[in-house]
Every structure is written in C-alpha cells, then in structure tokens.
Amino acid sequence: MAAWLLNKLKSFMVLAYGFTGLLYYGLVAVRLGYLFKEPTEKENLELQIARDKFWNLSKDCGFKFHYVCNDSGNRGPADQAKPVVVFIHGFPDSWAIWRHVLSSSSLQESATLVAVDMPGYGGSDSFEEYSATNVLESLTEFVIAIRAKYGVDTEAGPRQKKLDYSLPRHSASNVRRLISTSVKMVKTASRDPIRSRSMFSKAFSTLGPVFRQVWRSKYIFAFQLPMFLVRYLGRGGYYSFLKIIHRSSYGRREFTSQDAAECLASTMGPSTTESSTQTADGEEYPASLKNERAPSSFQHMACYYRDGTSIARWNKSVETITDLHSISGGNGAGLFDDGPKGALKASATILWGKADIALEPQICLDGISDYLVADSQLVELPLSGHFTPLERESQVALEKAVEWSACYPKAVVTLRK
Q: What whole-number distance in Å separates Cα of residue 48 and Cα of residue 181?
C-alpha cells in the first residue's frame, strides 16, 4: 500500500512540475513575442529554402538516407589513410547542427566526416519504443558499418580517436550522493533542532546543485505530460518552444532570420515536399517519415525522455558484443573492464561550456575523472554554453580538437589552469 501511494505521489509531482514547465515556456514565448506572432512571408520562404538545402535527396551534395558524409565516392590512397570522425547530435537537432563544423576546409582535407541523424530525428527511421537497447543497438550497428566501409578496422586502416561534447552518465550517482549527504545531516540535526539550525541550512545548501539541475531540466518533466500536450509544446504558438531553444543556442552571437530558418529546418526535418525526393540511385526516406513525421518529429524526440533512453539498461546482442570485442585496442580500457557504472571504455576529449544553461557543473563534473580512461581530457570553454556546435568560440574549439585528433593522434595534452 505504501509503495502504491509513493508511486502515485511521484507521478503527481512529475506531472505537476511538467505543467509548471509548460506554463513557464508559454510565458517566455509571450514575453519574446513568439506565441502569437505568425511567420511572415519572408520567414516562410527562408524556412522552405533551408529545408530544401538540408533534406532534398535529389541534390548531389544532399543527404543519403540518414547521414551526411564528405566522401565523394572516389577514394584514392590519400583518402583511405584519413581518419573517420562521426558526429552525433542531441535534442532537438539533427545532423545539420554540425553544418558549420562540417564546412571547415581544414577538416575536409584531413578527415572523413560523417554526421548521422539519431533514430526518430531528421531523416532517420523511427521506433515504436525508444528504449536504450533499440536506440543504442541501431547506433552501434551504424558506427560499426561506417568503420567497415572506410577501413577503420583493417590493419592498415586510419587512426582512431574519439571526441565527445557530452558527458559520461555519472550524474545520477552525484545526485544520489548529494541527497544521501543531505539526509544524513537532517537526521543528525533533528536530534537537537534548536542547536543545529546551521546544520539544517547546510543540508539544504548541499542540495542546491540538485535543485538547480531540476530547474534546468523542467522541459524533461514537461515531456512526461499526456502526448497531446507534448505535441502542442513542440508545435503550438508557431513552434515558439523550439524558437526559444534555437535563439538561446547562439548565445551572444547575432541570430539572423536565416539562422532561425536553418535551426527550425534542422529540428523539423524533411517536409512533405522533401520527403518525396530521391537520390540518383533511387534511395528514399523511410516510410515512417513520409506517413507520420513530415509535419514534425517532435513527439519522437520527446520519447527519448519518456521511454528512459538515457537511464535504462542496454541489453547488448551477441552480435554487438562480438563486434565491439573485435575492435582494435589501444584505448586504455577493455570491453569488460571493471569500473564505475557508466564509465567510458575509450579515451575521450570532452568540451564543456562554462555558460551551459542545461547542465549543472557540480552534478556533471564532480568525480568525472573516475569515468575517463588514459589519454582523456576535459576542456572548459569560458565563453561557450550548451550548444557547442553553434556558438562561435566552441565552433573553433571543436574544429581544432578534431583536427588535432586527426593529424596528431599520439599527441599528449598538458593540463593548465
């Protein structure tokens, strides 16, 4: 009975906070003038141009199935020696969030660049359920296929290194640690509450990072609301919620009407016009995109949070385990190495924007060294925020980090404060 009541209370609190988030974004949209402002003819035209540029399969430089690559198809000996860099996006984007980095001439010359759409995003196929197993199995299969296509796993294949702009999933352990510490303080102070008032204050201040992260994650709670409200959040008010995110993604950088159109086209994916296009080889977009997602893929994006993609267990198939085990070593860790839950198995370079609006640094960075292997590093960018592929400083940092990794794979980073 007690467990049933606790579950009901938890569901009520999640929904209540979800409604709070929905109301908050609505008020922000009103304040910024997005909610009731109908797009102008110029804005609609710029959106059509951006969608055609990103999603029209009939163009030679266009998008094949669900990833974009700078490979021309005529690979000479020099091209075969290039390392392969795979770019993976987050919410609410597609491969197009990497468009500025992909256009770098120095990277074009030094590496084979691949930018992929996650399942349910952009031009990729979709799932009925976005479980960790469904998403990660398909993504792993794609990356392994790319490695095989470009000879990464051959003896003479190109060099390998991993670049990441996200974080290892160790935040939950930090949250549990802070809550546990706070609870112990409260229990101790409750024995003599009058003399232990400072202990109560310290207990609540210990939970400060947790409260700040909950506030920054209010959109996740909004995604737990009934699906018709989630769809409205993504489409209502002339896409005002998405426009708020897109504007904040540029930080202090100038945000032009063309930038707004390209951001919206990147998030929305192909329209009914682009979804009917084909490549010269007759390749088409998946049927699920044509029949359901052409108006908007927002509900599929939200399902990553509704279905617990980031927190559920990944049940690897035998084929996946075999493929991962056969990948050449040299990463500083093995497939079955012991370590904290969520620890990385390969060296990584993590770029952290110190002005991040979505992630609390104390939750995400405390103890992060325990989750990294040899030759890994964390680079803090003082002028960047959450959307590192779009902000000016982090664009340069990403380009240089990939270039350094591709051209100097054995280089060692010297840490400086």
A: 53
The two structure tokens encoding residue 71: 């490979």
**Tokens, residue 273:** 């016009």
Q: What are phi and psi of 124, to 5 degrees?
A: -80, 160
pLDDT digits (tens, 9 = 90+) for 61-93: 433 336 788 776 666 555 667 888 899 999 999
CA–CA distance, 359 with 213 (Å, rounded to integer): 6
Largest CA distance in the chain: 78
Is 1-36+75-118+128-245+295-410 a CATH 3.40.50 domain?
A: yes
Helices (H), 250-297: 257-268, 287-288
The dihedrals phi and psi of 91, each to the nearest 5 degrees, come to: -80, 140
Q: Compute the distance between CA of residue 114 and CA of residue 322 in angstroms, rounded to an integer.
A: 24
Pairing of strands 84-88, 163-164: unpaired
Question: How far is residue 210's CA from residue 218's CA, in Å, rounded to a whole number?
Answer: 12
Mean pLDDT, the chain, integer:
80
Yes or no: say if 111 and 82 are a contact pair by the CB < 8 Å rule. Answer: yes
Q: Which residues pair with 86 in a beta bridge?
A: 114
* C-alpha dist (Å) from residue 252 to 31, 32, 101, 261, 355: 19, 16, 19, 18, 11
Tell me the domain boundaries of the chain: 1-36+75-118+128-245+295-410
Helix or strand (DSSP H, E) at 112: strand 112-116
How far is residue 276's CA from residue 123's CA, in Å, rounded to a whole number?
12
| Per-position b or e across 338-364, b if 16+ CB within 10 A of its CB | eeeeebbbbbbbbbbbeebebbbeebb
The model's pLDDT over 152-174, given as tens digits with 9 standing for 90+, comes to: 654 434 444 444 444 445 566 66
Closest C-alpha to 415, from 379, 382, 362, 381: 379
pLDDT score at 254: 86
Give me the residue label for tokens 């906070």.
Answer: 17
